[in-house]
């Protein structure tokens, strides 16, 4: 009985202490450092240059947002096909890699507000005269796209009578088109324009813009983070909103994409 009285007294003291001091409220995480995952192989959005330094629209833009948020930012390069699993396993805190906020991806991760919306295009040889890129017109043709992307999902959903070939990177798909091993490639317009101005200038051209499928392409490009990171989402969204009104977003878009960010 003595032991029981002591336990009861201790429990009463704890309860009294809580009552007197009031409820303990959970404190939200204060972000002082953000680790950012990116592919580093998708120019002009993000790319590793000859010196193995990250460069591109999203690199400059996110570095600017980090200054606005007054946080230290650390970049982590990650292959595209493992970019979401690495986020979920806590390798970094946010993905900034030209990732469209599709309904399918939103089942696994949360997204910031959209900061750009890029058109999708199909590229082929300069000798192609028709701009008809309908599934019927491209029956039997080989079409390449980076695997685990909205572009490959689009091909698999709509071009069932064509041969859809996935590639680990967009660069590898581009090179197969360049070397005549593909009939077409599909990707974001700006990424394809970068290819055509560079290695593909003598071989290839944009054939036509690809119509967007809302369920596959989503509303636009956002920054992905683990679900439930409300403080991080609020921090990012505030900085994104500021960048839209003060011209920061369009400044970086004009430099790297040659046009204003599409909102």
Outline the structure in words.
The protein contains 9 helices and 13 strands. The protein folds into 2 domains: 124 residues, Periplasmic binding protein-like II (D-Maltodextrin-Binding Protein, domain 2); 98 residues, D-Maltodextrin-Binding Protein, domain 2. A 5-stranded mixed sheet has the order 5-1-6-13-7. The chain has a 5-stranded mixed sheet with strand order 10-9-11-8-12, with helices on both faces. The N terminus is likely disordered. The protein is globular, with a radius of gyration of 24 Å. The protein is an alpha/beta fold and 263 residues long.
Instruction: Give the quaternary arrangement of the chains.
Output: single chain
Task: Please tell me how large the radius of gyration is.
Answer: 24 Å
What is the second-level CATH architecture of the largest domain?
3-Layer(aba) Sandwich
* The CATH superfamily title of the largest domain: Periplasmic binding protein-like II
Strand content: 15-25%
